[in-house]
Design brief:
By secondary structure, the chain is α+β, with helices and mostly antiparallel strands. 18% of the residues lie in helices and 36% in strands.
């Protein structure tokens, strides 16, 4: 009898476990991932900033007007890309070793003009073969890519509509104050027209591991994957940033998000519309980082024959303001310059031997760029160099630490003229194409040696 009861108990227990397993695994699967439908994630960085304390005794702010202005100008962005997958085993059976499939990413965008220009993040539409946007009224429109700026993670789209679209005017991000209330509006997890509130918790933030040091606006408004490219607005409904990154160890919001300041985004948009590429402005100096405990940016070397020399800047000067905007670290200076164009004049406040001086400097155009994928530095050719080699474009190599380049003895003095048969116009374009290389595709470089001989190299 005892044996029978024991056997019955084991059977019942086994049944319970089996039923529970069925419920968990079969009826309610939790780990199924559709690889064909993904959300364009926000950039993530380690969460290592101190928490923000908000005074709960302050009277609440009314966000309804700003939210109403914003939600109609923020769109859902759908990116369809065609991917190629390698299958080495298929070739063993005489079949093709590759297959193509569609992958979908989603994000947000902001309408910035009534005729249909939309700003979003570059990573939202990266390598898209088709882009579709959905307005707040659920109307769907096809979008075309006008241009991108990978370094600032900004892209410009255009849609055609038979009526004027609701849009957001750019605000002045320099006027944003720490502690000021802001709204983040976007489409996290495909939840359209989502509005979250927070405060500006820092400005001029440069993110760890970011090669292109940027001056992000940091906020504690909740931002999640799908918010990429959405709007950060103040309580007046002015666009002061494009939501781009989050501070997270999990991939979801745990405290902080970061936005490209509107002044930078607007300048990028203007450059893409006028020139087709971003015009980077420089002072013509290097930075001396030997002293860590100073407020400002200490000037190291100054380029010969530069506008900085003409303006009277000296090595050792400390830049403390740009056009009366306080500069405490390099990312502040970088942010101000990124929002300016070559040829513009800026007033620099500098400290020299304990005395504050004002210097007016004409900004020059950046003409040297670095490809981190290939480990090569490239510079625009001068008119004299183009005439000498009888070419209309190209980019001159000024330095290289790529193993392939070193093996073939490709170095300073070589001129990159074509990539995969396409002519290269300048150094900026060359770096953009080189950094798009993933290693899964073939890349053939046409180079001109210092002696003027054409050479070809396959990577």
């Amino acid at each position: 009898m005892k044996k029978t009861i024991k056997t019955l108990g084991i059977a019942i227990l086994g049944g319970v476990i089996t039923l529970a397993g069925y419920k968990m695994i079969i009826e309610n699967p939790q780990e199924i991932i559709q690889v064909s439908e993904i959300q364009s994630p926000l950039k993530t960085i380690p969460a290592n900033y101190p928490s923000t304390v908000i005074n709960s005794e302050l009277s609440p702010t009314d966000f309804t007007e700003a939210a109403d202005k914003t939600v109609h100008a923020v769109v859902h962005v759908k990116n369809t890309a065609v991917r190629t997958q390698q299958n080495p085993y298929a070739q063993l059976f005489g079949r093709s070793g590759t297959r193509k499939y569609e992958q979908v990413g989603t994000g947000s965008g902001v309408i910035i003009s009534p005729d249909g220009y939309i700003v979003t993040n570059n990573h939202v539409i990266d390598r898209a073969s088709e882009i579709e946007i959905t307005l707040n009224n659920r109307k769907k429109l096809k979008a075309v890519l006008v241009g991108t700026d990978k370094s600032n993670d900004i892209a410009l789209l255009k849609v055609d509509s038979d009526e004027d679209l609701p849009y957001l005017p750019f605000g002045n991000s320099d006027n944003a104050k720490i502690g000021e209330w802001v709204l983040a509006v976007g489409n996290p997890y495909n939840l359209t027209s989502t509005v979250t509130a927070g405060i500006v918790s820092a400005k001029g933030r440069d993110l760890d591991g970011n090669r292109n040091i940027e001056a992000f606006i940091q906020t504690d408004a909740a931002v999640n994957p799908g918010n990429s490219g959405g709007a950060l607005v103040n309580t007046r409904g002015e666009l002061i940033g494009i939501n781009t990154a989050i501070s997270s160890k999990t991939g979801s919001f745990i405290g902080y998000s970061f936005a490209v300041p509107s002044n930078i985004a607007k300048k990028v948009v203007d450059d893409l519309l006028e020139f087709g590429s971003v015009q980077e402005a420089i002072i013509g100096i290097s930075v001396d980082n030997s002293i860590k405990d100073i407020e400002g940016v200490k000037i190291g070397e100054i380029e010969s024959n530069s506008e900085a020399i003409k303006a009277g800047l000296l090595e050792g000067d400390i830049i403390t303001k740009v056009n009366n905007i306080k500069i405490t670290k390099f990312s502040d200076l970088k942010g101000q310059l990124t929002a300016k164009r070559p040829g513009e004049y800026v007033n620099l406040t500098i400290t020299r031997n304990g005395e504050d001086l004002m210097k007016t400097v004409k900004l020059a155009k950046k003409n040297t760029f670095t490809s981190y994928s290939f480990g090569v530095q490239l510079k625009d050719l001068s008119k004299k160099e183009r005439k000498k080699h009888a070419i209309t474009g190209g980019a001159k190599i000024t330095g290289a630490n790529n193993k392939g380049f070193l093996y073939y003895k490709i170095g300073a003095g070589y001129i990159l003229t074509k990539i995969n048969g396409k002519e290269i116009t300048n150094a900026s374009e060359a770096v953009t194409v080189l950094d798009a290389y993933t290693g899964n595709q073939q890349m053939i470089l046409e180079l001109m040696s210092p002696e003027g001989k054409k050479e070809y190299f396959r990577f």
